[in-house]
Structure formats: C-alpha cells, structure tokens
Design goal:
Elements lengths: L1 H15 L10 E8 L5 E7 L4 E9 L7 E11 L5 E9 L2 E5 L7
Antiparallel strand pairs: 1-2, 2-3, 3-4, 4-5, 5-6
Length: 105
C-alpha cells in the first residue's frame, strides 16, 4: 500500500511539473514545404508547448482577383499554465482570428 501511495505521489508530481521554460525550449518537430509558386505549408512544435501550423494557397491565379489564402493555428502555454489556441484565416477579406481568449465582435 505504501508503494502505491508513493507511486501516486510521483505520478502527480510529474504531471504537475511545468513545461520547459521558453528560453530553453527545444524544437521537437519542424516541417516546411514551399513550392515557390505561392503555395506553402509549415509546422513546428517546441518543448515549451508552443506549436504552429500554416498553409497558404494562391487562388484565382492569373486573374485580377488573384489572392493568397493563408490558414493556420498557433498554440502556446502562458506562464500561469493556461493554454491558448488561435486559429486564423488571412485572405482578400483581411486577417480573421478566432480564439476563446479573444473578445467576440
């Protein structure tokens, strides 16, 4: 029974441990694909809980309505441990962010 109590305490301490400090964050994953023709996508994730992915596509190519459409998500953890997620689209209509932490308009 003692073993179980100690084991439970160790697991709880590990789960409560803070994520890596941003100053010491390590890159865990990085992907990048850029055709050089307007389309691209990239993604990365770091040990401090930050992650980002973004994709862009050129639409209406060769017309006067040609526009780059960018979609992405950014995730980060604040110093107090709260996780934030920001989804966005940027296109001919401007930058359109969405996130629970943003005021509703």
């Amino acid at each position: 029974m003692k073993f179980f109590a100690v084991f439970a305490c160790v697991i709880a301490a590990c789960l409560a441990a803070p994520l890596d400090d941003s100053k010491n964050a390590q890159i865990l994953r990085y992907e990048n694909d850029n055709t050089g023709l307007g389309n691209y996508n990239f993604a990365y994730e770091t040990s401090d809980g930050t992650a980002r992915q973004e994709t862009a596509e050129l639409k209406n190519v060769g017309t006067e309505n040609e526009a780059l459409v960018v979609r992405g998500t950014i995730r980060w953890v604040a110093p107090d441990g709260q996780e934030f997620v920001l989804n966005y689209i940027a296109d001919e209509n401007g930058f359109q962010p969405e996130g629970n932490h943003l005021p509703r308009v």
